[in-house]
Specification:
The chain has about 200 residues and is mainly alpha-helical. The chain is about 65% helix and about 5% strand. The protein is built from 5 helices and 2 strands; from the N terminus they run ααααββα. A two-stranded antiparallel sheet has the order 1-2. The longest helix is centred in the last third of the chain and has 48 residues, at about 150-195. It is elongated. The two termini are about 25 Å apart. One of its GO terms (cellular component) is membrane. Keywords: Membrane, Transmembrane, Transmembrane helix.
């Protein structure tokens, strides 16, 4: 069972790397509403993009546990071979949990607050006091005049970040469980093997 679980962890590494890349790309795209650069030049982007939730939390921070897991022999070889390796796996998983949680929380807050856009009352957050109800009321999205399709742009990218950060959190949680199980079970296996040989 443990071997199969570790094999699953190995396959999850490719998913983790893909998720990291997608998080970074999604965060970068948030800087360029409607695919244009003039809005960031005029500082007309939501302040939450400067928290780098996808670039930092779901991206660069997640690279550390991903590299640690890969360097430990893609989890299978690390199943109890070394106590330091197991400790490294646990700490890396905890770091990954923190990074993915940060990405999720900031993305959720940004999605709840809504986009920063030009309305008939000027540049503002038109859905700031809406309590997130604008997400289910597409007729309100026309309140944002510029950038074009900014609500769809933000909702799509932030939803992607929410989904990917959730996936990263689950993968790191599985790695954490794997590391803890190895730390607990491996000494028992060694004792049993030693007693059989004796």
């Amino acid at each position: 069972f443990l071997y199969e679980f570790c094999s699953f962890c190995t396959g999850s590494l490719s998913v983790l790397y893909l998720s990291i890349i997608c998080c970074i790309v999604a965060n970068v795209l948030l800087f360029f509403p409607d695919g244009k650069i003039n809005f960031i030049q005029d500082e007309h982007v939501t302040t939450y993009v400067w928290y780098f939730m996808g670039i930092g939390g779901g991206g660069l921070v997640m690279l550390i546990p991903a590299c640690v897991f890969l360097g430990m022999g893609k989890c299978v070889d690390s199943c109890g071979t070394d106590s330091c390796a197991m400790c490294g796996s646990v700490f890396a998983a905890l770091l990954g949990l923190a990074g993915s949680a940060y990405c999720f929380l900031i993305s959720a807050v940004a999605l709840f607050k809504g986009p920063y856009c030009f309305t008939q009352m000027g540049w503002r957050y038109p859905f700031e006091d809406d309590g997130g109800r604008y997400l289910f009321a597409r007729e309100k999205w026309s309140f944002c005049i510029q950038p074009a399709h900014i609500v769809e742009w933000n909702v799509t990218l932030l939803s992607i970040l929410l989904g990917l950060s959730t996936l990263e959190f689950l993968l790191c949680f599985l790695q954490l469980v794997s590391g803890l199980v190895n730390a607990v079970c491996r000494p028992c296996c060694y004792k049993q093997e030693y007693s059989l040989n004796a």
